[in-house]
Known about the structure:
111 residues; alpha+beta; 3-stranded antiparallel β-sheet; two-stranded antiparallel ribbon; 3 helices; 5 strands; 14% strand
Amino acid sequence: MSGARHRRKGDRIEREIVAAHLALGIHSERVPLSGAQRYQGNGSDVDVYAHGRDQAPLCCEVKARASGSGFVTLEKWLGDNDALFLRRDHAEPIVVMPWRIWAALLSRLRP
């Protein structure tokens, strides 16, 4: 895939994530240039205003893979659970969860 096709795919997935948050009533926006310019001090792909537009956003990274390479193991570990906690030695834990759980958590935070 060419560089332009990669960018278009990334842009499309980021817009989908923003639209999904907006459908929940949570303001969200793509970071200009997908974080390449460190807009407003962050290099994220999408800002999610879970606590309202007047509060600092959650800075979110978006990844998509056609084959799911790398995701398959995470999905297997997650199984039917609500969340998966990953922690490398001497590092902060990472949380992986299905969209349905994320959406339920956001619905409780809606300003």
